[in-house]
Recover the amino acids of this structure.
């Protein structure tokens, strides 16, 4: 969620509710400022009030990489949005041309990119499995079109499409 903190709009990246021994409960949160882009750790007392800021999500498609930035297009009105690599985060490992994503906006500014739970990618490099390596569930490292390496079963070959879980980065099945 996004909140108004000290007159600046920030996105909550992570939070934990803590109740230490005989002290009062508090919430430890990591906030990223929209203006500066810097993240900071903040401690809120459990009685402190916060002002939530509405967030808007838009379905978009990944178009291309422009230097270090990523360009996304809205398929309905063809508007483009350029998002910095640090805001894209680990989602960049699963972005291929025309891949559907959800972009989160706060006050007309993109703050994060969410990829689907699983994506289908093409294997670009898969070493041959060694004959005799057939013990239970033996895996080998394969490289997919986005450049990441994933552990996959020995029968996966170069050029095949595989389904990858974007939350864990692990092989799920052939596509």
């Amino acid at each position: 969620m996004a909140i108004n903190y000290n007159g600046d709009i920030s996105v909550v990246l992570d939070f934990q509710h803590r109740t230490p021994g005989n002290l009062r409960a508090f919430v430890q949160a990591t906030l990223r400022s929209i203006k500066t882009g810097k993240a900071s750790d903040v401690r809120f007392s459990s009685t402190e009030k916060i002002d939530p800021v509405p967030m808007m999500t838009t379905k978009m498609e990944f178009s291309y990489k422009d230097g270090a930035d990523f360009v996304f297009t809205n398929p309905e009105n063809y508007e483009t949005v350029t998002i910095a690599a640090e805001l894209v985060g680990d989602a960049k490992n699963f972005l291929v041309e025309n891949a559907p994503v959800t972009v989160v906006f706060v006050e007309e500014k993109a703050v994060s990119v969410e990829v689907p739970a699983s994506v289908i990618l093409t294997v670009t490099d898969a070493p041959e499995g060694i004959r005799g390596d057939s013990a239970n569930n033996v895996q080998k490292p394969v490289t997919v079109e986005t450049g990441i390496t994933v552990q996959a079963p020995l029968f996966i070959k170069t050029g095949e499409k595989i389904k990858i879980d974007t939350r864990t980065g692990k092989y799920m099945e052939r596509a």
Notes: The chain has three domains: 2-53, 56-114, 118-174.
